[in-house]
Prior knowledge:
This is Protein unc-93 homolog A. Belongs to the unc-93 family. This protein has helices spanning 3-24, 29-72, 76-106, 117-120, 145-169, 175-183, 188-197, 202-233, 239-264, 266-286, 294-322, 327-347, 354-381, 396-400, 403-409. By secondary structure, the protein is an all-alpha fold. It has one domain: Growth Hormone, Chain: A (Up-down Bundle), CATH 1.20.1250. The two termini are 21 Å apart.
Amino acid sequence: MEANSSSACFQCIRSLCHLAQETTGSGAEWVKVVGVYTLMPTSVILGLGGSPLWSAKCTYLTIAGNSQGAKDGKKGSDVINQYFGIFFFIFQSSAVWGNLMSSLIFGQDTNIIHIPEEQLQTCGTADCGLSVNSSSNSTTTRPEQKLVWTLVGCYIGVGVLAMLIVAVFLDNIDRNTTSEFRGNREPFWHTFLATFRLLKDRRLVILIPLTMYSGFEQSFLSGEYTKNYVTCALGIHYVGFVMMCFGATNSLCSFFFGRLARYTGRAALFFLAALTNFACIIALLYWRPHPDQLPVFFVFPALWGMADAIWQTQTNALYGVLFPRDKEAAFANYRMWESLGFVIAFAYSTFLCLEYKLYILLAVLVLTVITYPIVEYREHKNPTLPVIDGTYDKSEKAYEKGQEEDEKNVICQTQM
């Protein structure tokens, strides 16, 4: 799937999948009875819609980064890092706006109950952590139904707006690349199997722990931290504010680290992220959350957001640099292994104590720190030559005509 010819289509399809998920997950009483027949199918639809979009997005940014680098006489990897930084700056800011929206809406709920001291004794790793799932937990009282529907309506409106913006304004990269792709389009199964054939590349296999850790660490913050620390000690109405802190830090750091990587290199940033996550995990093992320590509840997501900004921007950029000839298959592998990390983490979420979940997260982090340098060492010894796509992969003469000729090839959706 070439992102430069199908990103708008995939974005629209994914937005429709999001609308189906949001409408079904609105939480009406009948959904509680038949939830397994509604939430699970729409979750599958959301996954099917999101998978091609993420692969297309990464491919799109990689091609655009290499193209811009060739025009400006810069290293393609540096421009790709900047592009992913800008993308995740915008993408992660959605956590701010989304949680701000939910916090303002649910903040109108008057059904806020005081948390007893006995329950505070079970927060964090002080207790197994599974008791937080109990239906008797007063901090997870359901908001008023009208507030739920108000929030769902807002989400649906944003989803529709996203479809319209992408369908109208997203440009294809250039006319030549689009025509070439449409003329040489390979069968679906060939592209599908290419994802698994790429596993013959040892570099990709070595990157699996790093990629899966991205899923583990994201699922921990969104699932375990919000449930066993924030909801347990402060109440569910604080979750939105805490995740806003994560989103804001993540967004700003994505933009910052995307540019900083040009001067420090990937390795230094990866180890900074690993050190940050390591310190947070150790602290969470011993921290006993209490409402009197309110600022601390925001420190952890802020640090986690900083680290996640590195994991997201640099891992995506790394895949684009290492596999320039197999971008679609490479990014499909990235999403597959990251999603597997999500699946595994959420699968054992209701069966293991929080302490064991932290140990598992720590073990995967250590494995990542051990395996990732191997890839960097191999890349340092045998650098991967970038493949210049589209208008600039024919020959040097293709872009000696100058930027004016390239700009003529740009397809604007508004002119189609």
